[in-house]
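User:
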Amino acid sequence: LKKDDIGRDLLMTVNAQTNGELEFEDVNVAPFARFPDVSLTLIKPKYFEVPAEKRESIHQPILSFTKIIISLDILKLIRSRIDISGIQINDGRIDLIEYEDSTFNFQKAFRTPENKEKQIQEVKGSMCNLDHLLSVDLISLRNITLDITRKPANSHQNVTLTKSRASLMILPDSIRGKGNIDVNINQYSIAEN
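Assistant: Predicted structure:
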């Protein structure tokens, strides 16, 4: 497995399965760092609500991190399946926006495109598991700023996730998760009408 192939396949797979768009500057592969898992490090990853061709210059990414370390089961990866045992994210930002119709930007971004089946078939060496879009046994977050804008309530919250551990499963019709979070509230404001 070549680093460039893994990076390209990861981008194509994620971007084919969701309405949003993943971008990153580089990917590093460490096959023996967490053996029997292979470790992928995404350098400066960003995830946007919509692809670049539909994005205005004012659009900020929903997710923006210094780096993400992903541990994958190497045996399943060789068989073109993704099984993520862990994700470690230190230092970054999550920007959530609730729109007037009470939907959030991440819901729109992670929603499966209507033409998903066709796109999945087009992904070379597809790493897709059709039972679920993504399953992660352990997500570890440290020093992540969470900025929440709620347009219907005209409110804004800004918190720092100092330490968090969670698990997540994204299914075609729902998202399931559980975890523990330590939070510092930096700002909580409600604008007057």
